[in-house]
Write a structure and sequence with these properties.
Elements lengths: L23 H16 L2 E4 L2 E4 L13 E6 L4 E6 L3 E7 L2 E8 L11 E2 L18 E4 L2 E4 L4 E3 L9 E11 L8 E9 L6 E10 L2 E4 L4 E2 L5 E7 L4 E6 L12 E8 L2 E6 L18 E2 L5 E2 L8 E3 L6 E4 L9 E7 L5 E7 L6
Antiparallel strand pairs: 1-2, 3-4, 4-5, 5-6, 6-7, 8-9, 10-11, 11-12, 12-13, 13-14, 13-15, 16-17, 17-18, 18-19, 20-23, 21-22, 23-24, 24-25
């Protein structure tokens, strides 16, 4: 079986985000305002709060209140002269609240504190051990976490799950996404590890088209999940004769359906380290840098955003796209991709 790639610690369950900068006084004041409104001819039923408008007494200390109701949406907005309180009510339960001081003219001031509902963890029900994985147009059916090449006797050639799945809300849409590492064990050649990523979308686990790997001569390990990101340790080399780069931490998430590096700078998950014996192959200062070799991929930066953009030797470059190292004037660096036609010598 041909190598399917072109040449080119414990799971941390995300915790529910907590409101910040809410003082006891603000909460007490908000509760007082809500109680005052409830006492002022209000009726509560099935997620709706309905009330007549209450005229506020003159002066900033008055608790004049206006209640507005959307019968179909169950959205209640309450504004007081001394304090602004906004709450989203669903089935009688408050799932979001806004507190802010109101100026003498009644205009809202202060920040909104979002309190989303529980994170949707439906992706945990997806059977990753028996999933069908797709890579570069080919599909492989896992069985108990393994795909064995049926054409090779002995069953030692194929994909083997080595880490994961782990879960995190990496696209920040309030539902969990997933990642796992599969090791490709060939009949001959290099054993290669790859992180596959699934996004929960439209009620189903959708595998991203691109994966996270360090190329034919690289390795990844140590898959972990934090609240809004996955991370691995990775090392790479441009060819078999070159020593691998130092291990580096790659923190990544999802943007527009692509895996993207999110720390320390935004960029491609594909590596672009410097190698002493492999100088840059050209410049692409006038090119738009993207996170993947795709015209629809999110941009890392446009011409003028970087002090220099160098095309670098890489085991993951293609015939039409080149990996680049984009340097900023502040010293930060992002990896990315540009069309090879934009690279000049």
């Amino acid at each position: 079986m041909n190598y399917p790639y072109p040449q080119y610690d414990p799971n941390q369950v995300p915790q529910q985000p907590q409101p910040e900068n809410l003082t006891n006084e603000a909460i007490v004041a908000g509760n007082t305002a809500i109680s005052a409104a409830a006492a002022g001819s209000s009726a509560v039923a099935g997620g709706m709060i309905i009330s007549e408008s209450g005229a506020g007494a003159a002066g900033g200390g008055a608790m004049g209140t206006t209640l507005a109701t959307g019968a179909k949406t169950g959205l209640m907005l309450k504004l007081g002269i001394g304090l602004g309180v906004g709450a989203l009510v669903v089935g009688g339960a408050v799932v979001g609240i806004k507190l802010g001081l109101l100026g003498g003219g009644g205009g809202p001031g202060g920040a909104t504190v979002a309190t989303p509902g529980p994170v949707d963890d439906s992706i945990r029900k997806f059977d990753f051990s028996n999933a069908k994985i797709s890579i570069y147009g080919q599909q492989y059916q896992l069985k108990n976490g393994i795909y064995r090449d049926p054409t090779v006797p002995g069953g030692d050639v194929g994909f083997f799950t080595t880490e994961g799945p782990v879960y995190a809300d990496v696209d920040k849409d309030n539902d969990l996404d997933a990642a796992l590492i599969l090791e490709w064990r060939p009949n001959a050649g290099h054993t290669t590890t790859t992180a596959f990523v699934w996004q929960w979308d439209s009620g189903a686990a959708q595998q991203l088209t691109r994966q996270v790997d360090m190329g034919y001569y690289g390795q990844i390990k140590g898959l972990k999940a934090t609240k809004h990101a996955f991370s691995v340790q990775g090392t790479t080399a441009p060819d078999v004769a070159t020593a691998r780069s130092p291990w580096e931490k790659i923190v990544f998430g999802i943007k527009d359906g692509f895996p993207v590096r999110v720390k320390p700078t935004f960029g491609s998950v594909d590596p672009c380290p410097e190698f002493k014996d492999h100088p840059p192959t050209g410049r692409a200062d006038k090119a738009t840098v993207r996170v993947a070799p795709d015209d629809k991929a999110p941009t890392v930066g446009k011409p003028g955003d970087f002090s220099e953009v160098e095309a670098v030797p890489s085991a993951v470059s293609t015939d039409t796209w080149s990996v680049v190292r984009a340097k900023r004037s502040d010293g930060t660096v992002s990896c990315g991709w540009v069309p090879s036609s934009d690279v000049t010598q």
